[in-house]
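Forwarding the complex inputs:
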Amino acid sequence: MWHELWIAFPALLRGLAVTLELSAVVIVLGSTIGYLGGLSLEYGPKPLWAAVRVYVDTLRGIPVLVLLFAVFYGLPIVGIQIGAFGAGVVALSVFAGAHMTEVVRGGIASIPRTQGDAAKAIGLQFWERLRWVILPQAVRRILPPWVNTAVELVKGSSLVSLIGVVELLLATQQVVGRTFIVIPTYTLAGLMYFVVNYGISRLGALVERRYAFLSY
Amino acid sequence: MDTPILQAAGVHKRFGTLEVLRGIDLTVRRGEVVALIGASGSGKTTLLRCINLLEEYDHGQIFVDGELIGYREQDGRRTLLPERVIARQRAHIGMVFQSFNLFPHMTAEGNIVLGLMRVQGKSRREATDTARGWLDRVGLLDKVAAYPYQLSGGQQQRVAIARALAMEPKLMLFDEVTSALDPELVGEVLLVMQDLARTGMTMLVVSHEMLFVREVAHRVVFMDGGRLIEEGSPHELLMNPRSERLKSFLMRFQGVFR
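Prediction (whole assembly, two chains):
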């Protein structure tokens, strides 16, 4: 059995690489959407605010899997060919963006308005206030829910196995299909997911400690 | 004649249906220390916040050193100035808040350096030197590297004053700056303000510290219900109030004056 697992290991690693790549892209894109969305909700003009509000509320009410199928089967119908991996990136990023938007908005909203007043009083303009006064403080509040969302996304990336992307889960299933070694293979895959997510959590805790003096 | 540092004319401000300022006319000359007194809700804080446009006012005009604050007037219509211009106007008006409002993620020095570098465009070295000079001035040179949470309320407020002064404002606004302090810490902040008044800084001070008002202010203005009711020298106003409203307001401070 150890021998079979050893043979299967490279296949699992290749799956893990796809999982990592997909997760990383989705986290970066989702965070970018979340940053812009959060700013729009907090400071944007009414129409932008309303548009983002609809986006967030809609996306948070739909299962990711439904979204994934809609993108995978829907985009080709309107003539957009992006493949399974591309569909996974789009669906998961749009989903992540909705969640990250709320995370960023909540973080910014938690900073007292008086901080903005003080920043205005010394003559800072909007982006300067954001860059030097509001965001450095908001980061501390944003980080914990951001880590949660990132971990959820890594786990959620396993859904793209259902549209044929050979990421860690599908790679595992293929190995099991060949070797019939069920429990040890899935245990190994589970361990890999765990290591990645534990890494993200530790990294988050590390950054959080850097901002510890903000726990007023 | 010198242009007054502050000239407000017919300033109105409403929040929804609540009329907070009902036509304020107020002039503050260069080097003058004017105290604003009045019950809470009388509009003192709102007036201060209108002067550096933390609140937009609805009618009237506020001039600081001859420049209309916040708006451009053309053919009787007024439009809000672009943010860049408003920010520049604010940079010339120092404000100190009741709740200090130091930036908690920056040291005492960092709090002061921020405006010097980002607004005045000073180099870090230059800004640091200036910041230390002002911290020394408020007696906190040993606290340059301290974060706000490591400072007492009185120390935080002195840093906040230094932060405002470092921008070399034409006018300083003080909004009940000792109201959030423990009684034993009030003195150190008032001392800094008294020192500042002596050096000729133009100051508009909202305060409930009647002894300070009497000793330091050149002129006292009493506000009630969004209007200026009475103004005069501290002695006139505090010892011989004319209006009933001021009389009843001062009753609350009985015992403060012999």
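The domain at 29-48+90-251 of chain B is CATH 3.40.50.300 (Rossmann fold).
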